[in-house]
Design a protein that fits this description.
The chain contains seven helices and 28 strands. The two termini are 32 Å apart. The protein has helices at residues 4-12, 25-28, 156-164, 203-213, 228-238, 258-266, 301-319; strands spanning 21-24, 32-33, 37-38, 48-49, 53-56, 70-78, 93-96, 108-111, 121-124, 134-135, 146-148, 169-173, 177-183, 187-188, 199-200, 217-224, 244-248, 269-273, 276-277, 281-287, 292-297, 329-334, 338-339, 345-353, 364-367, 384-388, 394-395, 400-405. With 409 residues, the protein is α/β, with parallel strands linked by helices. The strands form eight sheets. It has a six-stranded mixed β-sheet with strand order 16-13-17-21-20-18, with helices on both faces. Strands 8-5-7-6-9 form a five-stranded mixed β-sheet, with no helix packed on it. A hairpin with a 4-residue loop joins strand 20 (281-287) and strand 21. It is elongated.
Length: 409
């Protein structure tokens, strides 16, 4: 059997580096930057007020007290966006709004709450320091500075930065197009009645959701039966809308493992066994004239889920222009004992709890009671996978184990 690391390397070898494209800002949301973004201007571009108040010469208020306030004539009102030149001489002040440009001569802003709010003359009952409530030009970003680096995911904060430096579009790696397909004669679309020996199909929903959570555009084709010609025709019909095909089911050693039967004949897909549990049977390769990558996952729901986290996640990260490393891991204390078959690396569903007993306290992880590859119910609660190495068959409660953090939906 192959090692997990070898299979990860093999599937990543299918993936060519993505080509960047220019997208409008809102279309770029959730994608990954393919360029460094610099600011063509300083931010702010001019000295401005950080609050509503009065622009003053700080020296004019040095003697102001509650008992002996200082009164200054108001010579102008300055609103945000006002480009009219205003100068404030010593002994004068100007009403100013948040974001409005500082007038020439003034070196501080007195919040309106510290005054009587006068419109012709304003009274001040305390001194103010020079620079108070003034945002200096370039305080945030200097002209020419890099504000976003390549490889950053464009979220809400990044979107705000892009717009603030005047970008209407940006070069990004587009979302990968992922098509998900399940196989099996026993499958029935959820919401329809079950016949004898049938089950509601769940894998394609689960895998489509996981791919969407990973930042992809996803088409769930649903499922097809175990007819070889139908499976092949279906796969070929999906190629034009896919950067990656993911199938589940039909990859093991059974007489009706149709995905394996069909794709083996194509000569471009390899089926193998990986030293892991769950998820031992795997397939990978390319299909179609353009060599579209395909990953064929086992049909047991938990096996498909774990295979996605271990093998598909790195592929999707590479397709998005990100480092194709594994999911983040941590060390945690096991709350109950677990077992693992010899020679295979186990990925056991668990619930991770961060400790509240000090900065250096280690988190704990509680393994799910039901760990069968068909037992889907525990997945909804699981937020981690306990990793048990190939040469370990038993782990006692209280032992420290490696834990793979599952992505949040």
């Amino acid at each position: 059997m192959k090692t997990v690391e070898q299979h990860v390397s093999d599937v990543l070898g299918l993936i060519a580096p993505p080509e960047p494209t220019e997208l409008d800002l809102l279309q770029a949301h959730g994608t990954v930057l393919a360029e460094a973004v610099t600011s063509p201007v300083s931010l702010p571009g001019f000295d401005n007020s950080s609050m509503d108040g009065y622009a003053v010469h700080a020296a004019d208020l040095s003697s102001a007290t509650a008992d002996e306030p200082v009164s200054l004539p108001v010579i102008a009102d300055i609103a945000a966006g006002d480009g009219s030149p205003v100068a404030v001489a010593p002994g004068m002040c100007a009403r100013i709004m948040t974001g409005a440009p500082m007038p020439t001569g003034a070196d501080a802003v007195v919040p309106v709450e510290w005054t009587d709010g006068g419109t012709a003359t304003a009274r001040f009952d305390r001194p103010v320091k020079g620079g108070n409530a003034v945002r200096r030009a370039g305080d945030d970003v200097r002209e020419g500075a890099e504000v976003l680096r390549p490889g950053v995911r464009v979220g809400a904060g990044e979107m705000g930065v892009l717009a603030a430096v005047g970008r209407r579009s940006v070069s990004v790696f587009p979302r990968p197009r992922v098509v998900v397909l399940s196989t099996g004669e026993e499958l029935v679309e959820p919401g329809r009645p079950l016949g004898p020996g049938q089950i509601w199909e769940s894998n394609s929903f689960m895998l489509a959701a996981a791919a969407r959570d990973a930042g992809c555009e996803v088409h769930r084709h649903g499922f097809v039966g175990d007819d070889a010609a139908t499976v092949l025709d279906t796969l070929e019909g999906l190629l034009t809308r896919a950067d990656l095909l993911i199938t589940s089911g039909g990859v093991s050693m059974g007489a009706y493992d149709v995905v394996k039967e069909v794709l083996t004949q194509q000569g471009t897909v390899e089926f193998t066994q990986v030293a892991m549990q769950p998820g031992k049977p795997q397939g990978f390769g390319t299909v179609g004239p353009d060599g579209t990558p395909i990953l064929t996952l086992p049909g047991n729901p938990v096996s498909a889920f774990v295979s996605f986290q271990v093998f598909v996640q790195p592929v999707l990260r590479k397709l998005r222009g990100l480092d194709p490393g594994p999911l983040p891991t941590t060390r945690a204390t096991l709350t109950s004992p677990v077992t693992s078959p010899p020679g295979r690396r186990s990925y056991l569903r668990g619930v991770l709890t961060e400790s509240a007993h000090g900065r250096d306290a280690r988190p704990t992880v509680a393994p799910a009671v039901r760990q069968g590859s068909h037992q889907l119910s525990a997945l909804a609660d699981a937020d981690a996978l306990v990793v048990v190495p190939e040469d370990v068959t038993e782990v006692r409660a209280g032992a420290v184990v490696e834990v793979m953090r599952l992505p949040e939906g």
